[in-house]
Amino acid sequence: MIRTFRISFSLKNTYRVNTILYSIKQIPLVKKLLPESLYKSRGLKIFANILAALWELAGTFLGKFLYLLILVFGIGAVYENKGNGTLFVHILFFLTMIGAYMNTYMFNPSNDKYYAMILMRMDARSYTLTNYVYQMGKCILGFMPFLILLGLGRKIPLWCCLLFPFFIVSVKMLIAWNYLADFKKSGESRDENLPGRLGWGLTAVFLAAAYGLPYLGIILPLWFMAAVMLLSLAGAFVAAVYMAKFDGYRELYQQLLAKFRNGMDFKQTAKAAVEEQNRKLISQDTGITSDKKGFEFFNELFVRRHQKILWKSVKRQAMICLFLFVGILFLVRINEDVRRQINRMLMVFLPYFVFIMYMINRGTSFTQALFMNCDHSMLTYSFYKRPEFILKLFRIRLREIIKVNLLPAGVIGVGLPVLLYFSGGTDNPLNYLLLFVSVLALSAFFSVHYLTCYYLLQPYNAGTEVVGGTYKIVTWVTYIVCFAFMNLRMSTLVFGSVVTFFCVVYCVGACVAVYRVADKTFRLRN
Description:
Low-confidence stretches: 261-266
Strand content: under 5%
Distance between the termini: 41 Å
Number of strands: 0
Number of helices: 20
Shape: globular
Structural class: mainly alpha
Mean pLDDT: 79
């Protein structure tokens, strides 16, 4: 088994190194400096191996740290003085339940499993067990130091911090045991990437229990959660014995990895599934037309045919935001502590909404729909890439994406001043205006940002795969910057004024950049 693990780890690392080298090769300013024999370069391979090692360490530690910092201790800090450390254990307890079936590892169809068990015909049982033990060990090792570091500072008992990583692993093992037993009985394998309606329904229930119950003053007692942890640990030993004796791993993965058609990896299959799903959402009504002319006609046909893709999710977001505001408004009216806390937050927490607006913005899905269902064909015509036509269509599309994103942004923009008024108000009336305007400005900013990135860094090839390394870097930097704003505390008056001014300047600069550069960058990638 040790030899199997060594070979499988080497295979995974080789795949990861080649992925890094390929991504580096896609960066415009760097690729010209790199030789065509990139994959033979010993120096670059050493550099890529260092990055791969850092990638492995980041997967072991950084991901867990951010998970705890944001989803547990970050959001949990909003419930001030409620349950002390027990509150954070309560939140992590229910999030662990979600992770148990949404991230099993064993039932994740990935490239390394396909290469090892299907192409190289490695022993499925040895490969699965050794890699599963390794992943569970990473899980314990990654969570342990940060649970102790962050937990003790928030009055979580040390024994609970030490026990919880083992609880996380034990719940995953119990789910894997259940899935294996179900496969043995029914012959149908599970795919953790396709949880189905039951999975998403349970996720909604657990999220509501994690974050909703504390608002109602309901927090699970620590002794109850400790009892569940100990019972799950006992069950994990039985699960481990079952997994060690299970003899159907090859049949399981042959079915689970059957989606890898003709050597294509799971991303290709997932992309094909997304395309098929999108096709079902596109209107097939041949009677759709418009009385407009030129690019306005072209755009209106696209928008009318793609109504469900463009508007379905934002309508859902707007309804969720509306219900949240109504619920918070109700709490503000009946609870004096909540009223004071909400009023205080609205006066200094506006930077937090940079990340919220980033998360709900539909710029990525909008540009993806543009490329998959329009531009990947139109970019084969030279007239489509003339600067004046690019800028004209850019402006039309910018108007449409802003309209799409303004629906949930409008609900938030109206809801924040209303909450501020009913939670006690403010001495400066400008705060009401800036809460409204800055949220709309942020929505417009992200709309412009994603569409500009699409035109200047066009990341897709003819197969609608994202191959632009610079585009990936920009999206990651955007995420990191928006996340950093969650830790910024600034008065609504100052931050609202600054962010509104910045968004206006950025929108003007983006239009100029698209006009001057997009005729060279807006093209199909190889």
